[in-house]
C-alpha cells in the first residue's frame, strides 16, 4: 500500500486549482440512469470513487466515454454516460460496501425499470450509516422493499407514485435518492426537511436540465412533479467545497498564503467564518479566495459544532481539529452528524496533539509543537487531517493507508508540493 511522506514546517505559498466536487459528481453520474439519452458531465474530479461508480454504472448497462481533459492543466475530464437500456438491476456488495454512494442507484433504478436489488452498504469507519430513510421514502412512494441476505430487494411493478415525505433526520443521500426517483414518479412528491447541501442544488440543476419539474431549489422543501421521461443534458460539476476548505486549512496551519482558484467562497461560508474567528485572513476573489496567516500571529481557539448545511460541515471537522492542535488556546469541537467520527484523534495525538474526547465533543488544547511520526488513518477526511498536521509538524510524518485519500483528493501531493510542501508518495506493494 502507498504511503505519503511529509517533512513539515514549511509555510505554503502559491496557487491551488480546486477540482470538481466528488460528492456532487457521484449523484450527478447516477442521474444518468433516469434517461435513455446521454448525460454529459464536465469538471469531473480524477479520484478513485468516480472510477468505482463508473464500474457500477457500466454493470447496469450504462455506456461510459471519458473525453480527456476539457480545459487547463488540471481541469477535470468530461464523461458521457448513456443508459439506453438497463441490462442489470443488481448493485453488488463488493462495490457498495467500498463506496456507499453506490446505493444511490436504488431510487433511480426503481423509478426507471420498477425493480432493483442493491446491497446494504453496511457500517463504515465513521458510523453505522443506516438506509432507513431511503427505504421508508421509496415505500411511501409505493415500492415494496424486502431485506434479503444483506440486499434491499425492491419492486414497483406499477411504477412509483408521488408522496409527501418528511425526513426525521436531514440526510444528503436520502434526499438525493428520493429526488431522483420522484422525477419519474406518477404525480407530485414533496420532500420536507430535505438536505440543503450545495451538492443537492447541483443535482436539482442537472435534473432540471434533463427536463424534471422541481421547485424549492436550495430550500428544505422540494416539490417534484413527476414526468414520464427525462432527456439528456450537459452539466458542469460544482467545485469541491471540502477540497477548498482543506487547502484553506493547509495555508492557515503552515502560516502561508495560498490562492484557491476554480472555486467559490459562498460554498464554505461557515468554514470561512470559523477560520476568521481563529485569526486567519480570507480574501474573496472572483474565482475563489486567498487564505493567509502571518506565521507569527497565533491561531485562536474556537468552539464549533458540525451541522447540516449551511452549518459547519462534518466533512471539515477533522481538518479543523488538526488546525486547532496548534492553536494558542482551547477549542471544543462537537460532531453531531456521525457517531464515530473522531478516529483521527489517537493519530493526531501521536504527533503530540492534546485532545480529550468526551462523548460527541473533543476538547483540543493547543500544543506548542507537533512532531512528525508514522500515522495511519481510517477514512478520507481523517487521512487529510493527518496530512495537515504533518505539514505543520517538525520532522517527518509518514501517512499510511493512502487509498483513503485517493478516494476523494485529486493529485494531493502535486497540489501541495507546487506550493512548497516537502511531500512525496512512496509506492507500496
Ligand atoms: C454524504 O453522505 C456525504 N457523502 C458524506 O461525505 C457527508 O459526510 C454526509 O453526506 C453528511 O454531509 C456523499 O455525498 C457521497 P447522510 P450520506 O445521509 O449521504 C443518518 C466524505 O467524507 N441517516 O447525510 O451518506 C446518518 O447515519 C463523506 O466525503 C439515517 O439515519 O450522509 C447520519 O447520521 C463521508 N438514515 C446522518 O443521517 C438514513 O437512511 C447524515 O447522513 C440515511 C442517513
Tell me what the structure shows.
With about 425 residues, the chain is an alpha/beta fold. About 30% of the residues lie in helices and about 25% in strands. The protein is built from 14 helices and 24 strands. The strands form six sheets. Strands 22-23-1-24 form a four-stranded mixed sheet. A four-stranded mixed sheet has the order 2-15-17-16, with helices on one face. Helix 12 (about 380-390) links the parallel strand 22 and strand 23 (about 395-400). Helix 1 (about 20-30) runs parallel beside helix 2 and helix 10 runs parallel beside helix 12. The N and C termini lie close together (about 5 Å). Ligand EPZ binds near residues 100, 132 and 173.
Features:
elongated, 429 residues, binds ligand EPZ, four-stranded mixed β-sheet, alpha/beta, 14 helices
Stretches with pLDDT under 50, minimum 5 residues? 70-75
**Which sequence of strands runs across the widest sheet?**
22-23-1-24
Head-to-tail CA distance between termini? 5 Å
Percent helix range: 25-40%
Number of helix segments?
Answer: 14
Derived structural class: alpha/beta
Oligomerization state: single chain
Query: Could you tell me the strand content as a percent range?
Result: 25-35%
**Hetero groups bound?**
ligand EPZ
Largest sheet: 4 strands, mixed
Task: Sum up the overall morphology in one term.
Answer: elongated
- Beta strands, count: 24
Return the average pLDDT rounded to an integer: 95
| Computed Rg | 21 Å
Amino acid at each position: 500500500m502507498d504511503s505519503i511522506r511529509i517533512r513539515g514546517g514549511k509555510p505554503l505559498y502559491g496557487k491551488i486549482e480546486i477540482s470538481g466536487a466528488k460528492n456532487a459528481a457521484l449523484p450527478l453520474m447516477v442521474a444518468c440512469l433516469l434517461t435513455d439519452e446521454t448525460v454529459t458531465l464536465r469538471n469531473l474530479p480524477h479520484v478513485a470513487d468516480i472510477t468505482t461508480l463508473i464500474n457500477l454504472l457500466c454493470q447496469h448497462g450504462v455506456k461510459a466515454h471519458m473525453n480527456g481533459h476539457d480545459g487547463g492543466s488540471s481541469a477535470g475530464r468530461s464523461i458521457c454516460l448513456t443508459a439506453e437500456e438497463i441490462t442489470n438491476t443488481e448493485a453488488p456488495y463488493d462495490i457498495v460496501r467500498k463506496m456507499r454512494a453506490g446505493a444511490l442507484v436504488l431510487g433511480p433504478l426503481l423509478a426507471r425499470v420498477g425493480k432493483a436489488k442493491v446491497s446494504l452498504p453496511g457500517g463504515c469507519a465513521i458510523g453505522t450509516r443506516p438506509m432507513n430513510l431511503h427505504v421508508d421514502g421509496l415505500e411511501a412512494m409505493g415500492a415494496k422493499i424486502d431485506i434479503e441476505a444483506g440486499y434491499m430487494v425492491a419492486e414497483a411493478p406499477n411504477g412509483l407514485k408521488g408522496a409527501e415525505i418528511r425526513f426525521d433526520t436531514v440526510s444528503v443521500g436520502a434526499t438525493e435518492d428520493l429526488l431522483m426517483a420522484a422525477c419519474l414518479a406518477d404525480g407530485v412528491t414533496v420532500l420536507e426537511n430535505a438536505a440543503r447541501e450545495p451538492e443537492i442544488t447541483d443535482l436539482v440543476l442537472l435534473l432540471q436540465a434533463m427536463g424534471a419539474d422541481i421547485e424549492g431549489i436550495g430550500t428544505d422543501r422540494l416539490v417534484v412533479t413527476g414526468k414520464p421521461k427525462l432527456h439528456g443534458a450537459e452539466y458542469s460539476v460544482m467545485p469541491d467545497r471540502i477540497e477548498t476548505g482543506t487547502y484553506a486549512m493547509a495555508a492557515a496551519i503552515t502560516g502561508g498564503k495560498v490562492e484557491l482558484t476554480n472555486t467559490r467562497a459562498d460554498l464554505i461560508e461557515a468554514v470561512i467564518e470559523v477560520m476568521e474567528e481563529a485569526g486567519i485572513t480570507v480574501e474573496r476573489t472572483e474565482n475563489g479566495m486567498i487564505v493567509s496567516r502571518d506565521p507569527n500571529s497565533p491561531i485562536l481557539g474556537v468552539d464549533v459544532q458540525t451541522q447540516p448545511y449551511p452549518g459547519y460541515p462534518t466533512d471539515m471537522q477533522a481538518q479543523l481539529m488538526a488546525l486547532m492542535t496548534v492553536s494558542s488556546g482551547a477549542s471544543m469541537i462537537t460532531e453531531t452528524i456521525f457517531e464515530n467520527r473522531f478516529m483521527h484523534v489517537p493519530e493526531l495525538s501521536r504527533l503530540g496533539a492534546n485532545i480529550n474526547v468526551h462523548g460527541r465533543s473533543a476538547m483540543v488544547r493547543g500544543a506548542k509543537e507537533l512532531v512528525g511520526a508514522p500515522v495511519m488513518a481510517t477514512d478520507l477526511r481523517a487521512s487529510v487531517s493527518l496530512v495537515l498536521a504533518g505539514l505543520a509538524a517538525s520532522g517527518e510524518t509518514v501517512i499510511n493507508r493512502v487509498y483513503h485519500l485517493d478516494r476523494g483528493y485529486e493529485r494531493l501531493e502535486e497540489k501541495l508540493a507546487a506550493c512548497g510542501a516537502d511531500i512525496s508518495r512512496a509506492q507500496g506493494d
